[in-house]
Amino acid sequence: MAQIGYSKEVMDHFMNPRNVGVIENPDGYGKVGNPVCGDLMEIFITVKEDKIGDIKFRTFGCGSAIAVSSMVTEMAKGKSLDEALKITRKDVADKLGGLPPQKMHCSNLGADALHAAIKNYWVKIGKIKPEEAGPEESEEGESCGT
Amino acid sequence: MIMSGVYLDHQSASPVDSRVAEFAGPFLSTGLGNPSSLHSRGLAAKAALEEARAKVADLINAEIPESIIFTAGATEANNLAVRGAALRNPALGKKLLASQIEHISVLNPHKDLKKAGFELDLVSVDSTGIIDLAALERLLGKETVLTSVMYANGEIGTIEPIKEVSALVHEKGNLLHVDAAAAAGKVRIDVQKDNIDLLTISSNDLCGPQGAGALYVKPGVRIQPVIFGGGQEKGLRPGTENLYALAGFGEAARLARLEGAGESERVKAIRDALIREILKIDEAYLTGHPAKRLANHASFRFSRIEGESILLTMDAMFDIQVSTGSACSSRTLEPSHVLLAIGLKHEQAHGSMIMTLGRSNNPDQIPAIAGATKKTVERLRALSPL
Hints:
The complex is a heterodimer of chains A (146) and B (386). Chain A is α+β, with helices and mostly antiparallel strands. Chain A contains six helices and three strands. In chain A, strand 2 and strand 3 (51-60) form a beta hairpin. Chain A is globular. Chain B has 386 residues and is an alpha/beta fold. Chain B has two domains: 6-12 and 260-383, Aspartate Aminotransferase, domain 1; 18-255, 3-Layer(aba) Sandwich (Aspartate Aminotransferase, domain 2), CATH 3.40.640. Chain B has helices at 18-24, 26-29, 40-59, 74-88, 104-112, 133-139, 162-172, 243-278, 307-318, 337-341, 346-349, 366-383; strands at 6-7, 68-71, 95-99, 119-123, 144-148, 175-179, 198-202, 213-217, 284-286, 297-302, 320-321, 352-356. Chain B is globular, with a radius of gyration of 21 Å. The model of chain B has no long low-confidence stretch (mean pLDDT 95). Classes of the chains: A alpha+beta (146), B alpha/beta (386).
């Protein structure tokens, strides 16, 4: 039978999101998405010995957008920056027991926000140049929901 | 399955009235024949069908029961009206008009007719959803074969000035199609007084069974079928009739005729209190017209949060079922064309919540609904970076 609605894991992370909030003066900050498209998420990180110490998020968006943000913070916490950078959109969706197909792109920006936060930190400490951080992997400029 | 909680999505699906279920139930199992058969059981089925037709005709004050063509729902009736009227009347012209906020089952057949060489113009609405009569007048012409303007909008509740629309269409154009799926039973409809040529009704919106609807076709107005088969429903909607659903539809129409006004007054009092309470929430706005709206309809938008999250939180945390016009909850991920037509920006349209009341709602539920809405909005705003 086709899955009906969101998975149990998505609803759990939606109803009880982990790591919600803001970090004042974060080491890294990433923001992706676009309110016009209905999803905007930001991730704050602190870095300690090249590992993610604290991590917080805030998200405007649908159920899966909030669940994805919560899950990606949980997956990234304590990981080295290199490891965290390897977390993909698909990893997050898999860990959530899957997402409805039409939500795979529009609401699945958690990994992108995490990567943006890590690169923002690397730019700050001079490990990479701003242009090497690449364009923000956001849906901005693209048509929504594709 | 027994449902508890507070159900506020009657626009999407209404529980069948228990009296309707009791009336229609026997049609499932008593072994009536096919209404087209000439034996006694067939005739009994035909009699039940015609009784249902007369009841539906009575609800909208149709001239004769035969002006009611039964369909499998409002979507089918809308397709039959638009395609059927446009394609049957080439002599009347090849231009079409529809309001911007028509239901997709009206808009899409209109758009599809462009492939058959028709020209389509959409008539704008104001910020409350009321059709721009001056624009309608400007766009109407002798070659406008069909104009579709809904009686009331299901997403924002706004009731259109159908009398004025009808006068304009019949003065400057030709046929008028009115989708009354959301309005029937809640607003007193008189197709003769309002001079409507084609009118769509849905059974479930009257608390009748799903899978039944009707198109009223004014005597003398010609349409053609969109599906082909036998001669049922004057050849306009072939296929063996769904007797159970249609018998229930008829009974629901009879009850709506009798009780609709009183029920509307009852739910309006609850609805008004809900609107009053919910608009106390910071940055909460009513969508649609403040007064000219369906008695059971309350629709809102909230800044900085998204509608699907509102729906899920209301459901999971408070067992209250609402609807939303947010893009994220739709199959296409497109924001509601209705909310965009009334001038909302995409990010505003995302934050919509629709409550449609019905028989199961009572005044005792008001504080719980208002309180749950407030907590839901606060919870999501605490999560939002906006």
